[in-house]
Amino acid sequence: MPEVRAASRPGANYAGLERAQRPVVKAVLVSRWHQDRAAQLRRAGAAASATGGGLTTLDDTSAVLFGLERRPALRLRRAAETMELSIQARRSRLGSPMKKNYVLDSNVLLYDPYAIFRFEDNDVILPIYVLEEIDQFKRETNERGRNARTVSRLLDAQRERGPLSTGVPIGEGGTLRVHVPLSRPKLSIALNPQSADHAILQTAIEVRDGARDRPTVFVTMDVNLRIRADALGLSTQNYESPAVDFEKLATGVVEIQLSAAEVDQFIDKGVTAAPASLALHNNVCVMMHDDSPRPRTALGRFRSEPPEIRALRVPREGVMGIRPRNTEQSLALDLLLDEAVRLVTILGKAGTGKTLLALAAGLKRVTVDGMFTRLLVSRPIMPLGRDIGYLPGAVEEKLNPWMQPIHDNLDFLLVSGGTKQRGHRGMSDLFESGQLQVEPLTYIRGRSLPQQFVIVDEAQNLTPHEVKTIITRCGEGTKIVLTGDPYQIDNPYVDAATNGLTVTADRLRGDGIVGHIMLTKGERSELANLAANKL
Q: Which tens digits make up the pLDDT trace of 104-121?
């Protein structure tokens, strides 16, 4: 007959502890003691099931709590489950949730090499097949190959802390472990049981079955693999560390209600105190409405030092021959012309004027005000639909089709729709003098860009790592503007929630040198607005 050994009661040494800390220490010790009791109960229940008998002895505490003396093993297992639930509830009350096992797929590490550090105090498990898959990409010269090499270096550095087969400490109390099964798993229901995806999936199931005392979550960015994992009863989720809830992304514009006297004061002095009840962040655009019989609206921008709302500084005559057509464009142009704001993110659908406003502000700051030495305009080389293949000619001739959208806007500003007196010679002079430069992003790594006005168009096609590389090229006195439409993405490896433009706008918003605004009203044409809204 199996026996359950009586566990010793938890004791606490309160020496050196503050009185307020003692209840927490005692609660943790009691929780650990109950966890040990649950483990003993599980082992005894399994032994009782194997022999078909009951228990001979049981400590007084368990007997009083559950009435288990000389009861069947089924009641014993139920008692263990009840105790586990009480442990989870106690941890929840103490603010310490139960640790989890996270099994990572290969695509997670190829997307974010530092994903192993982003699971707080939970345990991260890498199937050995993940390392085999990553090794296949290490010789590639693109971002995927670079991430594969980074993963290898990070794991090699962790080996100095101990063997990866047993686990090394990582994160905020978690561990990192490489799981090696005894034999190659074969998922019997799979069409191709020898595939790496099914081997990784079977490994995650093996980890789950071997650790029933904690939740096991399979993390993958493969939609079909998540569906198969869910069908097999495995808890799964997408990797969303760098992802942004685009539907909840701030527009960069807030509306507040003020009295008529406060609006009059703002119009006269160009500044007013921000309501203390509102938590406004730096450089947020503000639309102020008053409570007069004929409501008025005033536009401003909030600055935290000192906390006040300042009037917009947009010239009445416009910029480079164009004037803002709506409120959003006025707010965006104010951010673009402010030399104190060094990074501006402009999101909006097609036809809202993102690129045109950025180019107009850049040309004014470079050619008229002399605040910057050069206007550098760039965009990623990403085709819409099927590519036409290699292009003939020199580098400039190859890039001309890719940069034609930039030239169209420059032509409108300098020739047809803006400052008509410049003519084509004015555009040619800007290129020849070096004040205006249009180039792709391919060769930007390693460069340093001081005292320049940089515009990155179609930034929604860039990954967060690529946007980070671009922004870190900016030297002293440089201003950079990122524009794009997150709903029109041609890069198959990013979406509206994970592209570099959206992530940058969400993470850097609120800093004193960063401005953000989302444009919603199209001004290109009635037909363009109809297509953007209904197609």
A: 999 999 988 889 998 988
